[in-house]
Amino acid sequence: MQIYWTKINKIIEETPEIKTYMLDCPEGFTWEEGSHTHMGLEGFNAGDKPNRGLVRHMSICTLPHENAIGITTRIREQCSEYKATLRNLEVGSKVAIFKTHSNVPLKREDKNIYLLSSGVGLATFRPLVLEFFDRPDNVNQIHSLNIDSSKDFLFPEIFTSAPDKKFTAQFVDSRQNYYEEVKKLAADKDGIFYVVGSDEFLEQNIEVLREQGIRPEQIMLDKREQQRSSFL
């Protein structure tokens, strides 16, 4: 396993609780849209065994042509050891990235794509939308549905409806409204549904989609195949 040590070159405060850490691209490091990586903080591999408390599975919210690896995360006042350590890092601090993989690349099957997420889950979808804007081949259109009661919407410069680009962005402020909208979207029996969020959120979405007749192969999860099969 190759570990790439790199530096934070910029910290963006997206909202009062959400930050994006922009990392330098190490030589030889590559990724595609929908990728996640493991981000280790200094000291995670200092002992005989890795300190799992200093490692997290993170989505990459940028594309390679942006020349930075973007990691967007929510850091609440009461948070884990990992988030507390991350909050204290500054530009120039070192972090490690390793085990990078994409479970949710953009499917180009001449179908409508629906991106279903909650809050910071939009970070996983940002590169898919950018990839679609850059190269819309074999994708009919994309619709993003996100639950966010804060009104501090993430990436507003991207997640804004653009009919000329065949992209719509929709935000709702409650789970009840959200699942009503999911049912409406599932009227498209040929669509592809990407779901990102907590395991509980995935299970609830899958239940609603399956009840509406959406097949497992139409549901994309940011999970390895073995994990994916346990949900579906």
Automatic annotation (TrEMBL):
Q: Which Gene3D superfamilies match?
A: Nucleotide-binding domain of ferredoxin-NADP reductase (FNR) module (3.40.50.80), Translation factors (2.40.30.10)
Q: Which InterPro entries match?
A: FNR_nucleotide-bd, Riboflavin_synthase-like_b-brl
Domain of life (superkingdom): Bacteria
Q: Which residues cross the membrane?
A: none
Protein name (Swiss-Prot/TrEMBL): Dihydropteridine reductase
Q: Which organism is it from?
A: Lederbergia graminis
